[in-house]
Every structure is written in structure tokens, then in C-alpha cells.
Amino acid sequence: SRTRFLISGDGEIMTTNGTTIPQSTEHRCSLPNTRRSITHKFSINSHEGYLTVGLHDNGMPGEIFIKMSKDGSTLSGLIQAYCRAFSLAIQYGLSLEDAIKRFKDMRFEPMGMTTNPDIPYAKSIVDYTARYLETYFMPHDDTENETKLHDSEHS
Asked: Closest Cα partner for 140 from 106, 97, 105, 101?
């Protein structure tokens, strides 16, 4: 027998066997209307795009957007959906580290060589995005990546 879920008028989720599933009380940590961001041009196997990372006041990512050169394509639509889901996940409390772990190494076209010497090969646009965020926003044992981000902001 399958378990079925019922949603009451007040939003409570209950299974058909009578158990209640508690609702998350986490709140969304949205970015302010005016925020800092970094925009990065990338190319994966001749597919060009722009990754924009909206930043919280502490300099950590709070949202991502990707604009692909072939606007209106199926790929562009799917990438927009991925960005929305990724952004909501980190705004509702998924750590950037966990988000990177979940999306890094995803493999699908386009894949191949990139124009970024720090990320010479990407298995997909999603993989490239995760690797970019890891390279420029995750703490490392050295300050090499902090210097890379600081230099890229001022070049």
C-alpha cells in the first residue's frame, strides 16, 4: 500500500496513516533590492555565457544567474530553472558547500575546454558554475583564491 499525503487548509501535511509531517520554519534570506554582484564571462566548448553572482553584504553568494548566448533555446530555459532552484536553495539555508557538492561533476552537453585557466575543463555548465563558486567563494588553506577574486574585481 502506498502512502498518500494530504495538505490541510492551514498547510499542515498529513499522511493517510495519520502521521503529521512538520513544516519547515526556516525563513528565506533574500538579498536586498540593491546588492553587489560579480559578472563573469565564460565559454565551454564554444558555448558562451555570463554568470552573475548576487552577493550578500558579507560577500557570500545569495543568488546566481546565467545568460547564455543562444537566448530562447531549451538549454537556456533549463539553465534559468537551475539558477532559480540553486538560488532558492541557498536562500533557504542550504550551505554553499553542500550546493557545490550536489552540482559539481554533473555531466552533460555542452562540456569541454573553457576559457578560464582556473577551470580548464567543465563537464557541463552546472559543473562549471559549481567549480567557479568553489574556486572563488569557498575557503581554502591559502589565500590564493581570495587574491584571484580581488584581482578579477579590479582588472
From this structure: 97
